[in-house]
Amino acid sequence: MSLGSTVLVSRSGKSGLQRAAYAQPDLIFLDVLMPDIDGFETCRHLKKNPTTQPIPVIFMTALSSPSDKVRGLNAGAVDYITKPIHLEELLARTKVHLSLCALTKTLEAQNQKLKTEIEQRIATEKTLTQT
């Protein structure tokens, strides 16, 4: 994939959870069928951990039934792509989710800045009304 990204690979759900918590990736691609714990459970663990919760998860799997797709999305994934995977589709969806993630981070930073500004104005107003 040529998005100027580094790709880290884990061969199991448990190692993927550890690697994600340590490396803080921008995006996680996850298969459902994995050794130890399946992708649905791995995704639920990612979404319970405050460190990995904001990382978008995209399932890439051969399981294509509507119930599997719903299960993946209910586990916390932002997208679900079935195999065989078409490179153009994968790249397009990846770009969309990376853009959404970047916009979310920008909005969160702006909201924090506004909260700080409001707190400063309230403090200034209290000071002015007390004198």
Describe the protein in words.
The structure is a single chain. The protein contains four helices and three strands. It is mainly α and 131 residues long. Strand 1 (28-30), helix 2 and strand 2 form a beta-alpha-beta unit. The mean pLDDT is 92.
Task: Itemize the secondary structure elements and their pairings.
Elements: H1 13-23, E1 28-30, H2 39-48, E2 57-61, H3 66-74, E3 79-82, H4 87-130
Parallel strand pairs: 1-2, 2-3
Number of helices: 4
> Whole-Å distance between the termini?
63 Å
The strand line-up of the biggest sheet is 1-2-3
Q: Provide the low-confidence segments as ranges.
A: none
Summarize the entry for a quick read.
The chain is built from four helices and three strands. It has 131 residues and is mainly α.
